[in-house]
Fold these 4 entries.
Entry 1:
Amino acid sequence: MAMRVTQQLIYGNVISQNNAALSRLMETNNQASTQKRINAPSDDPNGAVTVLNTRADIDQLGQYKRNITTANGWLNQADSTLTSVSTLITTIKGYAEQGATGTITDENRGEIASAVRQYFQQLISQANTTYSGNSLFAGQKTDTEAFTEGLGMTSNDTAFDTALAAWPNPGYTVEGDTDSTVLVQFTDTTASPPAFEYTADGGQTWTAGTYSATPAAGTQTLQMGGVNLTMSDGALAAAKASANHEDSSGTWLWIRPAAYYQGNTKEDIAVTSANNAVVASAEGTFSGNVMVRVDDTTSGPTYSYSYSTDGGTSWMTGNKSGLPGPPTSLSVPGGVLTLSGTPADGDQFFIQPSTTDISLAISPTDSVVVNGVGKDIFGGIYEKTVANPTPPPANVKLNQAATFNGSDAANLFETVGKLVGYLETNNQAGCQEALDNLTASQQQILTTAASVGAKENRVTSAGTMVDTLAENSTTTLSKVEDADLTTLITKLSEQELAYQAVLKSSSMVMNLSLVSYI
C-alpha cells in the first residue's frame, strides 16, 4: 500500500521528535537541579511509595526528638528541685536536733523556729517549681500552683483524733491567719462546749477563748483572735482538761503552718450510678474505667455482681460482695466500690479514675511520665472525697494529711509544719518526734529523685536510639530518592548533544521543499 509523505507529515514528525528530546532534556535538568531521582510519582511509582513512607517515619522521629527535648527539660528541672529540697531537709534536721536538745533555752527555740518557718515557705516555693510556665508537681493542673500555704491543726490526744474523724461531722477547718503557732488548752470539760484558753506567744500570755454564737449544726467554732477553728461537738466532747499550762496532760491543740495541695490526684475517682437513689464511692488505684452490675440481691447473705473493664463487651460474673449493708463493699480490679444505699437487681455503676500523668512518647515503643503528684512526694494536706459509712448516704470532701504506707511520718510539709509549732511552743518531745519523721520524709524525696534520675537515663537512651533510627531512615531515603551524580551528568551531556543534533537535522529537513526546485 502506497503512502504519501506530505510536507505537513514531515513537519509534524520533526516537531514531535524535537518535543520528545526537549522533554527528556528538561527532566534530566530538573533531576540535576534537585539532585533527586524521584521528583514525581510517575518517575518511579514503587520508589515514590517508599519515599513517602520514609519521610513519614522521619517526621515522626523528629517529633520524638522534640518530645525528648521537652522531657529532658521537665525531668532535669524536677531532679534539680528534689536535690535542693533534700539539701534543705538536711539543714532543717540540724535545727530539729538543736530543738530536741534539753540544754537550749526557750529563746533559742524561738530563734530556731523563725528560721524553720522561713525554710517551710522555701519548701513550698520549691514544690511550686515550674518549667516553661507549667507546674511540675500539680498533676495535670499545670496552670495551678501545686501548694498554697495555710494553717493546720495537730493534737496530742489519739482519742480526740478518733472522735475528730468520726461521722456525721468528720474533720476540721481552720480560717484566718497568724504569724506564730496558736496553742490551745482545754481548761474545763464539764461545760458544753468545754472552756479553753489559747496563747500565740509560746505560752507567755494566755487568753480565754470564745465560741461562735451561730455555729453550724453539730459543730462548734473556736475563736482565737484572728484564727477560727471549726470541729464537731463529738470531738469537743472527747477533749480532756488540764489544770496547768503544762502539755504533759490533757488535750492540747497546735494550730501551725500547713501546705495545702491544689493539684489533682490519682484518688479523684468519679462514680456515677444508673440509679440515683444509691450513692456510691470508690477507692483504689484504677488503671481504667470499670463498669459494675448488681446481679442478685436476694440469694444468700451477700450480693452477686459482675464487672467489666472493656466498656461492657465482656463481664466477669459470679462475684460476691461483702455482707449487705449499707454500706456494702464490692471488690473490683484496682480497688473497692462502696454502696451507701441498698441496690436493686440490675443496677449499674461506672467507675472513672482520674488521670494525673503527663506522658510523652520518646520512641516508637516507649513513653515517659514527666510530671509528678505533689501530695505523693511532699505530702501536705489535700482534699479527699469520703463516703458516709452509715445512712443517710452522703459524700463529703475532707481535708486530710497525705499518708505514705498508712502513716504520715514521711509527710514532709506536715512534719516541718509540726516542727515549727513545737519549736514556737517550746515542746522538746515534739521536736524529737519531728526529727525522726524528717528522716522518713527525706527518704521519700530521695526515692522520688531516684525515680526521676532513672527516667532521665531512659530519655537519654531513647534519644540515642531515635538518632540512630533517624540516620538510618535518612540513608534509606537518600538511596531511593537521590540521583547518582556521575550517571546524571553523563546522561545530561548525552541528551544535550542529542537535542542539538535533533535541532540541526530538523532545520535541514525543514528547509527541503519542492519550491526550492521551481
Entry 2:
Amino acid sequence: MSLPPGFLDELRNRISIAQVVGRKVMWDQRKSNQAKGDLWAPCPFHQEKTASFHVDDRKGFYYCFGCHAKGDAIGFVQETENVGFMEAIEILAREAGLQMPARDPQAAQQADRNSRLAAANEAAVAHFRLQLKTGAAADARAYLARRGLDAATRDRFEIGYAPARQGVLAALTAKGLKPEDVIEAGLATTPDDGRAPYDAFRDRIMFPIRDARGRCIGFGGRAMAADAQAKYLNTRETPLFDKGRALYNHGPAREAAGKGQPLIVAEGYMDVIALVQAGFGAAVAPLGTAITEDQLRLMWRMADEPIIALDGDKAGLRAAERLVGLALPLLQPGKTLRFCLMPEGMDPDELIKAKGPEAMRAALDAAEPLVRMLWRRETEGQVFDTPERRHALDLRLRQAIGVIGDPGLKRHYGEALADLRRGLFQPQQGWRPRGEGRGRGFGFSEAQAPLAGTRASALGSGALSADDLRVTLILATLCRYPDLVERFETDLDRLAPRHPDHAALADLLLSTPAAHEAEVEAACTAHGLGPALDGLRGMAHLRIAPVLAGPPAPDKAATCLAEEFAKLHAARALEAEMAEALEDLDRAPEEGDTRLVRRLNHAVQRRLTATRPASAETAGAVSEDTAALSKGLRALIEARVWEKKSR
C-alpha cells in the first residue's frame, strides 16, 4: 500500500518518540532531562545495567551507544514488536488518532466490513468468556483444570465456552449487532433449507484466534461431547478468517521471537499454551491442518529457523516428512526449519507436564536440521543392500533437492547428503562426516575393508595391476579435486584405463565441468556411476593415501597427480619399447647380444627424455622411474630372452 504525500510527516508530528519508547524502558532520572526531550535508559535491544540508550524527543530519533541500534519511532515499533513497516505505521496511526488512508472506495468498504466482523468476534469473545464462569460450563472448567490451565492462564488466552443451548447469535443481536454480521463472521450458520440460523459452536471450549495485529478473526472450538462429529472445529472461511493464512498465538509469539526466543511450531492450542506457560513465549500452531506455504512464510517473517515440535508418533513423523517437501522449494539462504520430534507417544504439553520445562528445552536444543529430516524420510526403515536400491535412493535424493532454487544452497544440500550417504553405506568405525575429525577424504579417516557390494566389483576385487592401481589413485584424486581436471586434461585424455569402470569415470571427469567433490558425486549418480565411485573409494590403497585421507590440500594433490602421471607414462613407454624390441628380435633373431642391449638402452633413454618434466616438482618421480626402468631392463637382459626366442 502506498501512502499519500505528507502522511508520514503528519504521523511523526503527532507522536512522541519518548512516549513510544517509554512503554518499553525505564528512564534514568539522573541522566535524563525530560524538559529538553533528552532521555536516557538501559537499552531494550541488549542486556545492560547502565543507561546507554539515548532518545532525542525533539528530533525524533534514538541511538544506543552500546549496541549502536538507531532509528525513529516507526523503526522502534518494528524492532520491538517484530512487525513490518506498514504494520508499524498502522499501530502508530491508531495511537495518534490518525485515519489510515484507503486505497480506493472498494478498499474502504472492505475495511469497514472487516471492522464490523472483527467487532462481532470481539463481542463473542466476551460472551464466551462469561459463559465459562456459569454452571453449564462446570465440565469445561474441570477439563481445563485437569490440563493444568488455571484462571490466570484462561484469562491470558481469553478461553471461553459455547453452551449447547444459550446461543451467541441471540446474545449478540440482543446487544445491537446485526444478525448478518454475526453470520458472516462465522459465529452462526444459515441452513440451506430456509430454517432459522443457528450457532456454529455448541458445547465447546472456545479459543479465540487473533491475527498479527491483535484482531480476533475467528475461533477454534474443542468439543466436550465424546461422540462429537469433530473434536476440534474452526470458524469457517470468512472475509477475516482463512485458516491456511493464520497462526494461533501469532502476535505474542512474534513479539517474543523479536526478543530472541526460539519460534516453536506445535500442533495444537493446548501445546502452545503449555509452551507459553513453561516460558517459551514464541510458540504458534497451525489451525488443525497441515502447515501451508502461507503459514511457512509467516513463520519466516518472525524467525529464520522455526523449530517444528511435532508429536512423537507416526502421524507426527508423517507431518514432518510432508513439511520437508513443502519447504524445500521455498528455502533461501538463512531461511530453513529445524525439527524437534517428541519422545514416542508424547506431545509438548505432555512432555512438559511429565518432565518439566528443562526436558522441553533439551529436546529443542537437539532439534535436527531439515536436511537430516529429508534423509530420514528417504532412508528410514529401508535396506540398501543392492546397487539398484542405492541407485533408487540417489535418484530420490537428487529429485528432492532439485527443487531448491538457490544454486549455492542446493550444492550444500548435495554435500550434506553425500556425507550421510557415506555414513550409511560404509558405517565402519573410521567414518566421519565431512569436516569432522582429522580425515576428510571421502569420508574416511582410517583404513577399512570394502563393502560386500564393492568387493565383487572390478574396482574392489583386488585383481589389479600396478598400472591399474596408479590409474585408480589418479582418478580418486581428481574426483576429490575436480578443479584440477583442466590442468591435467591432456594427461587424463591419454590415461586409457583398462577397466570399464575406470574408463567411464575418466570420461565423466573430462565431460562434466565440476568445481567440488559433491558435483562429481551428483554427476556419477546421474549417469549410474554411483557404484563405480563407491568401489573406487573402497579400495584399501586409496583409503590410506595421504592426499586422500588427510585434510584438503590442493597443492599437494597437484604435485601427486604430476608425479603419478609421469610415472605412468614412463612405465608404459618402457613396456612399449620392450615390446617393439622383442618384435624386432622375432624378425631378426641373428642380431647379436651387444647390439640388442644397446638398442634397448637407447629406446629407454629416448622415452625418458620425451617424458622428462619441465619443472622440478616431478623430478623425483622421474628419478624413481629411471631406477625402476633400469632394473626392469637389467632383468630383461639377464633373462636373455632373445636366446629363448631364437631357439
Entry 3:
Amino acid sequence: MNVVPDTSVVIDGRVSAAIEGEEDVEVTFEGATVSVPEAVVAELEAQANDGLESGWDGLSELQTLADLAEGRRIDLEYVGDRPDAIERGHAAEGEIDALIRDLAEELKATFVTSDIVQAEVAEAKGLEVAYISPKSREVGTLALEEFFDDETMSVHLKTDTRPMAKRGALDEMRYEAIADDPLSEEEMDEYAREVVDGAKEASGGFVELSEPGMKIVQFRDYRIAIARPPFSDGIEITAVKPIAQTDIEDYEHAEELKDRLGEHQRGVLISGAPGAGKSTFAQAVARYLNDEEYAVKTMEKPRDLQVGPEITQYTELGGEMAKTADALLMVRPDYTIYDEVRKTDDFEVFADMRLAGVGMIGVVHATRAIDALQRLVGRVELGMIPQVVDTVVYIEAGEVAKVYDVTTEVKVPAGLTEEDLARPVILVSEFESGEPEYEIYTFNRQVVTVPLDDEDGGPGTESGVDRLAKGEIEREIRSVARGYVDVQLSGQDRAVVYVDDDDISTVIGKGGGRITDIENRLGIDIDVRTHDENPHSGGAASDGSSGSGAAGGGSAGQPEGRITTPEITSRHVVVPVEGNQGETVEIRAGGDYLFTATVSRGGEIQVSRGSAIAEELEDAIDRQEPITVVPS
C-alpha cells in the first residue's frame, strides 16, 4: 500500500496514529509506503520559520514517521519537487494542495487528508482517498491557570524570568513575583503550545490574531497574548482574566447616566489611564443597555470585553474596522461599544457611525477627562464634535471620577468682550452642576482649548484665556515693532504693551490708526508704553534682547518643552511635532511664546511665509534660538 499525506494530516499527527492503530482512527497504514511530498516539508518549514506551532507540530510528526521507518514498521520516502516562490505565494489559493494531489495521482497512491474540502476535491478528481478526522481532545484547564487566584488580574510569564502577576483591587494593584524559580524555554514553549491548542479545541475558545511572532487567543474567560522571537527577545505569555464584574448602579451618577443613555442614542467616550477600569465600566453599560432591550454590539480588536452571549462581539472585517462599521449599519444596532478608539481611522469610524444615528460608546486612553475630547480635534470637524460626542466619562481607580456634558453655543468666548468676536464655542460642562469648565473654539484660525478655571490657579496665576490673549497681543505688536515686546494684562478687556522708545510711534501709527486697528481686531484696549515705565522689568531689556517678562514664560537659555528643528521651504516654515498629532501646542523661541497651533495628522505645523508669525519664527531661527514645543 502506498499513501501520500497532505499537510493537514501531518500537522495533526494522524499518519503515525494510523500506523500505530489508535482507536479513533478507522484505517491502518502499518507496513505501507508513506510518500511525503517535498511540498509538505516546504510548507511546514515555512510555518515553523514564521513561529507557528502548526509548523513545529508537523516537523515533529515527520520525526515520528522517521522513527517508525527505522523500526521497519513503514517504508518512508520523500517525493516530488519543492514548490517555487510563485507556488508558495499562492498556497492559500490551493496551489500546494493541487501539487500534492497530482503526486498521489502520479504514484497511484491513496491520498490521505484531515481536510474535508481536500477529501471532496480529491474524490471528485477520481483519487482514492482516506479521510482521517482531526484529533479531538477534551480540554479541561490550562496549566497557567494555576497561577491565578481570586485577586489576580493578569499573569506575566517569560523565558528565564520568574513568573509575575498583577494582584489586588483596582486602586491598589501590585505587580509581584508568584514563584521563586525562572521558567525555562522548554517550559514556556509547552505553556504556549497548550494555550493555542486549547483555544482551537475548547468551546468558547478561538485564535483572535495570528501573526509571525505573535498570537492572541481567547480561552474561555482568559485573554492570552503569546510573543515569540524575533518579535520579542524571548517567549512571553501574558494572560488576563477579569476579576471584577460591576453593574452600572455601582457607580456614581448611575441614575443620571441611565436616564441620559435612555433618552436617545448618545455619543459617549469612556476615558481613563490603562488599568483604571474603563473596560469594566463599559461592560456594565453594555449589560444595562441590553437589559433595557436595546440592541447592543461591540467592535473590538482584539475582542476583550466580557459580555453575555446575547451581545455579539465583532472584530475587523477584512482587516478594516471601516468594513465592520458598514456591516453593522446593516445589522442596525441601537448602541455599539467601540473598544478601543486610538488611531485616526478609529475616530473617523466612530464619528461616521455616530452621525449615521447609531449610539456609540468609545473606550479611550486619556490621563485627563478633557484629553479624551481633545483627541477628536483635528480628526473631526470642530463644529461636529458635540454631535459625535455629547458625554465624556472619566474613570479613575475603578470609579467614575468626572462626567462632562458637551454642547455647542454661539457666543463670545469667556474673557473676550467684543460682540463681533462671537463664534461657535464648544462648552465642556461638569455633568452634575452644569458649570462650564472648558471652552473649545477657533481663535486666529487655530483651535484652542481654554480652561475657564485653572486647576492650579491662585493669586498671580494666569488663566488659559489670559495666556491666549497675551500671545495674540504680542504677535500683533511684534508684527510692527522691531525690538523687544512685553505684554501685561490689566483686566479682561485691557492690556499694557511695553516696547522700545524707537518703536512707540511705529506701533501707535499716524493719529493712533495702527493701534486702533489692532484693538478692533482683538477686542481689547491697549495702552502702549516704553520699557522704562514697566514695573515688572525694572526698565531692562530696552536693547531689544529677550527678557523674562515675555509672554509664555520661560527664562532665556532655559526653554521649556521639547526642542524641534523647523524647516524653511519656499512657501512655508514647517515645524515638526512628532507624537502630538491632533493636539494643541505652543511654539516658543528661546522660551518666549510665539503662537499656539493644532498639530496636523502628519505630525507638523505649517506657517505660511510672509505672515507675521512666520517672520518671527524665521528671525528666531536666524538668531539660533532654540525652538520648543510645549503642549497647551
Entry 4:
Amino acid sequence: MRKVRFLILFICLFAWGFPSFGQTTKKIEYESDRTIKNEEKYPGALILSKVQDQVHFTHEGIEVWCDQAIHYAQENFFKAYGNVRMEQGDTISMTSKYAEYNGTTQFAFASGNVNMRNPQTSLQTDTLFFDRQKQQAYYRSGGTVRDSASVLKSRIGRYYLNDEKYSFASEVVITNPEYVLTSSQLDFYSETGHAYMYGPSTITSEESVIYAERGFYDTRGDTGYFVKNSRIDYKNRILEGDSLYFNRNTNFASATNNIKVTDTINKSVIRGHYAEVFREKDSVFITKRAVAIALQEKDSVYIHSDTLMVTGKIDNRIIRGFYDVRLYKSNMSGKSDSIHVRESTGLTQMLGNPVIWSGENQLTGDTIHLINKPNSEELDSLKVFDNAFMIQKDSIGGYNQIKGKEMYGLFADNELYEVNLIKNTETLYYMRNDPGELIGINKTLSSSIQILLEDQEVQEIYYLKQIDGTLYPEQDLPPNARELKGFNWRGDEKLNSVDDLFAGEPPYDLVKIKGIPLPEEDEEFFEERTDGEAPLLNEKSRLRPEDLQERAQDTLPRAQHDSLRQVIEKPRDTTRTGSDSIPAEFRELQDTINSNTVKDTLSKKQDSPSRREELLTKQQ
C-alpha cells in the first residue's frame, strides 16, 4: 500500500512540475447547416455551407460566421468565404469577403472589403492580419479609420487592441470638417481621439497652417501641443517657438522659448520667450526678453520692453510696450517707461521719463513723439512736450544745454537737422572760435530758439524775441552754475548697439519644455518563430511564408522617428493577400457544394445528431 501511495504522489508531482506536457491546443468548434466531404479536391477537410443559418465557428473567445467554409479539423484551421463576420467579445467586430484562422497560433487573415469596428472607430482596408495572442491587427495596403470626429487614412497601420491605439506609418492623412492633418507617422488612440505625431506633420485649415516634427493633437477637442521646429502660419502672421499650444475653439495660440512672430504684411518681427496670439482679435502678447523689430531696408528699428502687445487689423496695427522700454536704430536710441506705436500714422509716443539720443544730443521731456513720413520708413519729425531739455556733451568738457516748455525737431535722411524750442527757453552754451579755443560760456533767456545741426552737431543757434543773455569767461562761472535747472545727463544709459537692448538684465533661463517622447520600439508584427513554436501560417493557408516578411516599403523603423524620410510608393502587392484572387476560389468552392448530393454526404459533429436529422428532413 505504501508503494501505491508513493507512486500516486510521484505522478502528481511529475504532472505539477511539468504542466506543459498536459496542455493541448483547444480545438475549433463549429456549427453548420450543411457539411460535405470531398477528399479529391479538399483532402482531410469538411466543406461547410449555409442553408438557413450561417456557418458558425467558436474558439478561445472568438466567434466567426460565414456562408461557406473549408474546415481542417486535424490542423485546427479553417477558411471562411462570403459575408464573413468575426467577433471577439464586445471589443471588436470584423467583416470581410474572406478570412482564415489558425487555431493553433490564433492568427487570422482577412481580405476583401475588410471592416473592423470597435466601440469608437471603424477600420476599412483591403487586407488585414490579426494576431490574437498579441492582440494586434496590421495592414500594409492602405486603410481608412473613421471615428466620431475625423477620417484617418494611411498606407500602413497597426492596431493595438489592449491600448485601443492605432499606429500609422507612411502617408497619414486625417480629414476633419475643420482641417486636414498629414504626417509621416502618427499614433491615434481611439477611445480619446488623441493623436501623437512623429516626423514632419502639417495641420491645414482655412484660417491657419500648423507645422511640427513632433506634436500632440486632440482630434475631438481641437487642441494641440507641438514641439520641434513648430510653427503656425496665419493669413498675415507666422508664430514660431520651441513649444506651441493651439486651441481651435477659441482661436488662441501660445508659444514658449525662442519665439518669433512675423508680421508678413507690415514687415515686422517680434521675439521673446513667451507669447499669446488671439486670431479673432488680431492681437499678440509677448514677454520674457521681448523685442519688436520693424524691418526696414536701410535701418531697422528695435523696441525692447518687459511686455509687448500688438493689436489691431492689418491697416491699423498698434504696438504697445510696458516697463523699461528701450529703442534702438543705428543713428538714434531711446528709453522710456512705456511706448505706443500706431503704424498707420507713423506716430511713436514715448511716455514716462523718456529720453532720446541722436548722435551726441540727448533729448528729454515729459512726453516724446516721433513721427515717420507718410508711406515711408524715414523719420519726419519729433515733438517733446513739457520740460523739454536738450544736452550735448562739449568736446573738451562741460555740457551745452537748451531747455524750454516744448521742443520740435525735423529729420532728413533719419538725421536730426533742426530743433525749435518755444516758451521760456534757456541756453547754456560753450562758445569757441575756429581753432576750438573756449571764448566763454553763454547763458541766454529768450522767447524761442532755433538750432541748426550738421552731422548731428550744433552749428548755429538763433534766439528769437525777448533776448537776455550774458557771455561769462570760464573762470567767472563756477561749476555749480554751469547746469540749467532740470539738468539730467543720462549718457551712461545710451544704447550703442543692438546688444545694449538687454544691458543690465540678468540672463534668462529658458523654461524646461515637457517634450513628447518617442514611442517605445515595438517588435515586428511578423516575428520569427523559435524552434518548437508552431508557424503562424497553416500549410493550407492561401498565404505563403514570404508574404509575412517585413518589407522596406511596409515599415518605418522606430529608431528613425526623428529622421523620418519619405518612403517611395511601390505598386500594391495584391498577389495572394489581396481581394482579386477571392472570386475564382469562391466559385470553385460553390461548384463543389452544388455538385454533391446533400443527402448522401451530409455529416455533422458527433455530439449533435438531432441537428443532422433535422437538416435531412428539411432537404427531403
